[in-house]
């Protein structure tokens, strides 16, 4: 008697949608969407700084097509607190209104971003690094990793037998100044994974990234040779670097002042979360003029040459609280982000021209440590996690290609070099490109307008020193302005300086008298918009151009 054969076919594996809207084919502005059965999760929500555009605006991911496609994310997960991973929350989160999952430090920074836009912060959900939670359709296992900001995590995303490792930004640092190490056992425990969505930033770097403890030692050694005032510039989010600078300052008997709002905010947040318990008490900038130069250390933002940042104002002698003098030391404890090299070089040259000594990682190796993995670190992580497939992100095409070549040496497949807007589909074995969205740059101006109502009308006199550059036909502000205004709520010098600088860029005048006349008319209208009141403006333009 014949028996009927029953053939049991394995259940067809479901598919995962992956849609990068930032961070692929570029460095910065990271935003990745993961979808399963029409339910979506966002990982990171970052922005980029556009040094190539006038006034250095911000760029945020273009999400305009999501509503048309019926994509409404159920959650956002932030891997760490850097601007290129959460800086766009204030503009994009209102379009989603979903929960935001972040570690305590990243949650604190995210709250600042929402508050700055006048938004409520009750959507923020805090998780402890290393814990498991649900976000949208995915089960999310957070994994501690070392980076240049504490509480950085990689994410293991699991749904319907899919296991995707989203690395975020990471490195292997056996001796971090703050935060956790990247531990082998945390990744061997989750091995093997199907797909790794991996950081490509340093895939072209052969060597292992430097430890933050090495930077701390170098900072102290460089400071030993400094006689005048010391200015240390680093990313405000690098709390380990800030703490190392504070410890070095204490050992060299220097008082610390903070220069830049971002630095002030991060030090305050770092203290609140217990990361800067060992950081010395700061002194107000207004008091440093009473201290001997050899007893002063200033922590400043603006290491990327941002024209409106504190460090650029200092280099141009336009800061209201401080002037650089010959013999002062400027320490760049950072490295230029790709695209910012020329701006950083110009900034360093400006300090040199003022007689300051400039120290950087290029001239004094060890003053900076990358937060991203070099080739050896990538090989180590992939030996631990044993992925079968790689999707290289966080980098330009050359970085992504180098990442694929590294993975190939371990037999890890990589079939797609993703770019922003590519709708990818992953079935557990193969990655395909289903569609490509058309994305447009979304530019956000950083110029802030402070409106202060007043019913009074008073005269304002501004003494403006300028210099004329004949080869460009342009006038430039130099040094400090003198402002004599009876208006109680007059704009601050930095805001007025911003307006003057931008206005001069687009102005042609054949003499200082003509320049003063043009500026007075424009300033009158601008100040009326700022202050909501009229004021008679007199501008005394002082031409300091050297006579030939």
From TrEMBL:
Residues 28-219 form the Metallo-beta-lactamase domain. Keywords: Exonuclease, Hydrolase, Metal-binding, Nuclease, RNA-binding, Zinc. It comes from Kushneria pakistanensis. Signal peptide: none annotated. SUPFAM superfamilies: Metallo-hydrolase/oxidoreductase. The keyword RNA-binding applies. InterPro entries: Metallo-B-lactamas, RibonucZ/Hydroxyglut_hydro, RMMBL, RNase_J_2, RNase_J_b_CASP. Transmembrane segments: none annotated. The keyword Nucleus does not apply. SMART domains: Lactamase_B. This is RNase J family beta-CASP ribonuclease.
